[in-house]
Amino acid sequence: MNVSPETDDITAALEAIEHGGKQYQFYKPLREAADEYIKWASTPERRVYTGIKPFDEAMRGTGPGELTLIQGFTHSGKTLLATEIILNNPETEFVLFTPDETRSLVLTKLTAAHHSVGAEELERRILADDEEARQLLISTAERYGKLAIFDETVTLMDMDRMFDEATDALGKRPKAVMFDYADLLQGFDDVRACLMQLKAWGKRQQVAMFVIHQASRTSGASGKRMGIDSGAYGGEQQSTHVIGVRRKKYMHFAMLQILEEKIANSTNPNSITVFEAKMREIRDILIPQDETTITLSLNKNKRPPCRLIDDTDFEVNPNTGRMFRVEHSKDSYGNPIKTTKVALQYLSRQGEAQPWTEVEMEF
């Protein structure tokens, strides 16, 4: 938080008195850590929540100065998750730095998801001079009026100026900042440096920081399971939480390619029969089942007891981009089926998690 020089002088003088007249640049008594933790634990409303129940229960929010990293391979669903977090925080003063997308595109995605209207349908209706469609965009912009979007390419100095403008325009310091995505921060040669600087910036501004980070091709390609080491050049060290995002359908496509190669190189009829049966299962059941799902996992969690979350599937409405949790079971023939829990967690103005409303649909 920015403070005046006068406030700095007063604070330094008080600390000098507490330390027996001596001033220290780095040392702080351990007793102060107790006060810091008590303040953190007693003010959950200062944290920002994803709005996704199992992750919020484990993470217990992203607090001021903390960093939550969202990482995955290209087209894995990282921005879908980022949009979901914003959707679940309409009353939070939020700043979104998105050099990768325009403000109008972000608003279109929010409108489609919030009003359950397809983005293509919305575009067609506006082209047809549909006043109701225009009002959907306007009402969404008003609902998320506490969201400030900056779609320019930025440096850290630019971020400072934009953050100050957002504070002035909103009449309150933003509580959360999202950066989409880390590689696009200007002024640094590698991703590790970008992440370190973004973490330091969020800590200096005392905001909950969410950063999208693209995984390397070797660790994130082909829908592989995400791990703590899936970042392109590291970054997990700077994070309080790391959420991995992947699409299982790409893993199924990769498996099909492997099986095709095995069949081509095999001379054993029995092995070929087994491989072909597995290919049919992947083509007929697994790929259709996971065509529109993304999979999230909590791969790092510094919040004691540091509970992690294994792969959790979410169905994505391809038209609106809204996410719904999936539970897997089997039918009477042993074939896997999905049950989607339409579970939207709404956050109160105070930021406290409210119970989910759930409706189950089998398909």
Describe this structure in words.
β8 (309-316) and β9 (323-330) form a beta hairpin. The relative contact order is 0.15. With 363 residues, the chain is of the alpha/beta class. It folds into three domains: 1-42, no CATH class; 44-247 and 294-307, P-loop containing nucleotide triphosphate hydrolases (Rossmann fold); 248-289, no CATH class. The chain starts with a helix and ends with a strand. The chain has helices at 5-18, 31-41, 53-59, 78-87, 103-115, 119-127, 131-143, 156-170, 191-205, 217-220, 248-265, 269-289; strands at residues 67-72, 94-97, 147-150, 176-180, 208-214, 241-246, 293-301, 309-316, 323-330, 336-341, 360-362. α5 packs across α7 and α11 runs antiparallel to α12 (269-289). It contains twelve helices and eleven strands.
Task: Kindly summarize this structure in a few lines.
The chain is of the alpha/beta class. The protein is built from twelve helices and eleven strands. The protein starts with a helix and ends with a strand.
